Amino acid sequence: MKVLAIIPAAGSGKRLKKNCDKPFIEVNSKPLLFYALNALESSPLIDEIILVVAKKRISKALNLVRRFRFRKVIKIIRGGKTRSESVSNGLKLLKKSNADLVFIHDGVRPFLEKSLIERCIKAAKKFGSSVACVPVKPTIKAERNGFILKTLERSTLLEAQTPQVFRKDLILKAYKNKKMLVCSTDDSKLVEKIGHKVRIVEGSNRNIKVTTPEDLLLAKALLKR
Ligand code: C5P
User: Which of 28, 47, 55, 120 is the right S-S partner for 163, CB 3.0 to 4.6 Å?
Assistant: First the structure.
């Protein structure tokens, strides 16, 4: 089975308050994006990679791919205004590809363990789709106009991570719903909406998304260990 990875890395990193696109921030002397790409390049389960970056970062991304000899990166393309637009740009190239599974992983999640790649692909082969999840740690409340609307039952809640892996036909169908794309921050949500049951895979607490300055400190500390 051929597996093609799409790596959205076209975010602006506003929440990081750094004057540099988040995926290219140096973390322990390598760009943040290096770590996810390196995990995929090293995995025998991944065949090809499409990297999605901001238009003005395409040449920087090309340099990174050359510098670290990431041979699986077949295309570097520009992203869109939202994450789903960026993924959608990657999916446009899929129509011509002979891939069976699409493996989507945020470029800013550097701790992509080999075992997690394996779990997600194995489940998607069997069930058509998979999403890495971990139980939520805090108590989550819904809010309206400055007051608590309700408290959600923590034991039933999961935090969705990436990787998320889908059969090619499913993800292409899910991304046809342009209305849903506007408010989607998660690919599996779109697949749920077309009536497919997405399989849950055990994620990892190390698999953090580097979003805030605190996440960056944590990522640096974890990389040093
Ligand atoms: O913004 P968010 O935290 O959801 O970003 C998750 C991933 O999606 C990051 O790797 C980010 O670079 C990417 N992204 C993108 N295009 C955007 C916004 C985010 O590829 N317009």
Answer: 120
Which of 32, 56, 64, 83 should be mutated for ligand 1, with most atoms under 8 A from CB? 83
10-19: pLDDT as tens digits: 998 776 666 5
Ligand 1 site residues, Cβ closer than 6 angstroms: 8-11, 23, 52, 79-83, 86, 106-108, 185, 209, 211
212 touches 16 (CB < 8 A) = yes
Residue 53 CA, closest ligand 1 atom number: 20
Residues 6+ apart with CB under 8 A from 86: 8, 10, 52, 79, 80
Half-sphere exposure of 146 (CA within 13 A, CB side): 0
Residue given tokens 């039952």 in the structure block: 153
By residue count, the chain amounts to: 225
Q: Measure CA of the first residue to CA of the last residue in the chain; give whole Å.
A: 35
Amino acid at 225: R
